[in-house]
Specification:
single chain; 417 residues; alpha/beta; 4-stranded mixed sheet; 14 helices; 31% helix; binds uridine-diphosphate-N-acetylglucosamine; transferase; cell shape; pyruvate; UDP-N-acetylglucosamine 1-carboxyvinyltransferase activity; cell cycle
């Protein structure tokens, strides 16, 4: 196990390059299954979730190589349809493989997926969507077995705009016979990115990024070279870091259009932000509380920035209410922030925060990916020394996190326990 040891209380200055979006890359890796051609993903982040997906591809018979930031996947010899349970349990995104493995091989077998423990994360919408396309699904002994002789387009209405279900259905529907309509689809930018990628492979996907996605199935797809969109959650994490620590940051390879709800909040609490041409500049000056932060599907405030925003609210002047609407137990960072001197009370899905002038260093534990990022920011802004463990959570989604923070002036190092 590893931990960060952090000496807090230093403002952050300088430039930071934002990685490609984790949540865009993961479904693209599943999409690579759909072709026998070569897929190259440029600027692919070396995070554990990506490395685990690459391992799944290898188990399926794909040849992969990771050179510099370029990940190459060659599917000519792929023939397996079973995703080993040890890997499926490592990450939730293994479930995306269902749609594309069925579309390519006519069958798929996968153990129930793992991922961040942030409450119940059902996959009923993924499975009912695939059933509508003609897939027969048998759930038994912790495994999902799927068979399909022919995928057929259908109209699918999602009960809620699930990101993963929208993507999984798209991945199967691109190879189905006829037209598929996904209604109440999720609108996250990563869905539009997946559609762009699939269309570059020869698919016909229309309306991605809107509540109705229309897909005309095609018989085959070709290889592609592609650079995914920037990671809005990593960008948001650095913007919040700046608001907490003070100083001036420039984010390169960052898309402000996909971060409007956060940028609006940060301006409200008196940060100065300028965005232009793939760059976002932030100056933080004083902090008044953001009053209300309520997570909701895109374009609302992202649940993946809730923990970081709560860490910021802890040191703002005034009170803030944070409401988590997407996941049930996404407040694991709260007791840890309280150990650092934060004043937080949780009632159901709401956290009530009374700002304190500063947090104090402490030894804290990350229970999930974004909670871990929030505690790291809290420690960097706090007075005195902290440690944040276990880093395996943070490594799932942030590449070179401590190197990037250190280059901005933070005093942070990784230590093996
Ligand atoms: C994706 C993101 C994750 C983000 C989340 C919400 C990836 C790899 N992960 O996760 O970082 O936090 O979107 O923005 O892109 N639901 C059901 N049944 C289903 C599927 C989902 O009830 O079959 C519910 C979930 O319990 C949850 C809500 O829908 O309450 C949103 O989940 P979903 O959008 O599916 O999130 P993920 O795709 O898992």
């Amino acid at each position: 196990m590893e931990k960060y040891v952090i000496e807090g209380g230093v403002p952050l200055y300088g430039e930071v390059e934002i990685q490609s979006a984790k949540n865009a890359v993961l479904p693209l890796l599943a999409a690579a299954v759909l072709t026998e051609g070569r897929v190259v993903i440029h600027k692919c982040p070396r995070i554990t979730d990506v490395l685990n997906m690459v391992q799944i591809l290898e188990e399926l018979g794909f040849a992969t190589s990771f050179l510099g930031g370029d990940l190459t996947i060659d599917g000519a010899a792929a023939a397996n349809h079973e995703i080993p349970s040890a890997l499926a349990k490592e990450l939730r995104s293994s479930v995306f493989m269902l749609g594309s493995v069925i579309a390519r091989f006519g069958r798929a077998r996968i153990a129930y997926p793992g991922g961040c423990d942030i409450g119940l994360r059902p996959i009923d919408l993924h499975l009912s969507g695939l059933r509508r396309l003609g897939v027969q699904i048998n759930e038994e002994g912790g495994y999902i077995d799927c068979v399909c002789s022919r995928l057929t387009g259908a109209e699918i209405v999602l009960d809620c705009p699930s990101v993963g279900a929208t993507e999984n259905i798209m991945l199967a529907a691109v190879r189905a016979e006829g037209e598929t309509l996904i209604r109440n689809a999720a609108r996250e930018p990563e869905i539009a990115d997946l559609a762009n990628f699939l269309n570059r492979m020869g698919a016909r996907v229309y309306g991605a990024g809107t509540p109705t996605v229309r897909i005309e199935g095609v018989p085959s797809l070709r290889g592609v070279e592609y650079t995914p969109i920037p990671d809005r959650i990593e960008a948001g994490t650095f913007l919040i870091a700046s608001a907490m620590c003070g100083g001036e940051l420039v984010l390169k390879n960052a898309d402000a259009e996909n971060l409007t709800s956060l940028i609006h909040k940060l301006c409200e609490i008196s940060c100065k932000i300028h965005a232009d041409n793939g760059k976002i500049e932030i100056q933080s000056r004083g902090r008044v509380s953001p009053k209300l932060v309520e997570t909701s599907p895109y374009p609302g405030f992202p649940t993946d920035l809730q923990a970081q925003m709560m860490a910021l609210a802890c040191i703002c002047r005034g009170s803030t209410v944070v409401v988590e609407n997407l996941f049930e137990t996404r407040f694991k960072h709260v007791p840890e922030l309280i150990r650092m001197g934060a004043d937080i009370t949780v009632r159901g899905r709401s956290a009530f925060i009374r700002g304190v002038p500063s947090l104090k260093g402490a030894d804290v534990f990350a229970g999930d990916l974004r909670g871990g990022a929030a505690l790291t920011l809290a420690a960097i802004s706090a007075e005195g020394q902290s440690s944040v463990s276990d880093l395996s959570h943070i490594d799932r989604g942030y590449s070179a996190f401590e190197f990037k923070l250190r280059a901005l002036g933070a005093r942070i190092r990784r230590v093996r326990i």
